[in-house]
Amino acid sequence: MAPVGTATANVSSTVGRVAAPLADAVRFPWFGGPVVVAHRGASQVAPENTLAAVDAAERQGFEWVENDVQRTRDGKLVVMHDATLARTTNVEQLYPDRSPWRVRDFTAAEIARLDAGSWYGKRFARERVPTLKEFLRRMEDHDLRLLLEIKNPQQYPGIESGIVRELAGAGWLDRSHVRRRLVVQSFSASSVRTVHGLVPQVRTGFLGNPPVNSLASYSRYVDQINPQLSKVNAQYVSAVHRLHGVHGDRLEVFAWDVPPRNYHRIAATYGLDGVIV
Is 264 a catalytic residue? Predict the structure, then answer.
């Protein structure tokens, strides 16, 4: 999903405005409300896609966490949203001659040295860019559910197989996880199809808003259509709901870029199954 451009100077005020009401809403959802997913962890109160953001999501009462997975130069899987490391780490200071600081150009050991928290706040200075293995372990510690986004798969041929191996090694492909705790999504239809081919039991989602007349083709390999909120309306959501996904259930719609304060009202207006906030 699109980068969050919140400047460091604005973080404390943003947290003050959003964190408390969001926490209350998530802890005490109205009956029959939407699934609420913590976007890159609880990124309203902790640096995105870090273990601190996972911990904060658990404290705030979230059941679901969304993350983004990419691959290092030496083939390790790490949790990072942007294609480059510049916005959310101190990579420019540690490696000034390595512009444009793309994730794929650094080894896992080099990335492990980076400070992934200070940009957000001094108290997060010890946060690091987690590997997928570390992220899964922390999710398991908190019994959280994962909406895993394969980021930029066109830059990482075969990343789907690597993610599947990592999930299997961490115990995330057993019946319990597959049935209630895991969805894999991507903006790339090809990547989602690949995941479905590798592990057909895993629920999958396509990030985007395909034309209504092409939704049936997506339903052959996805369980969710997950658009940006501004790109859809209630009629589109109804069209998605008229179809059944690859596992036989009604296709779901999880929208992103949903304002945290108004997610209940928005979800009801649009008929959303889930919101990524």
Answer: no
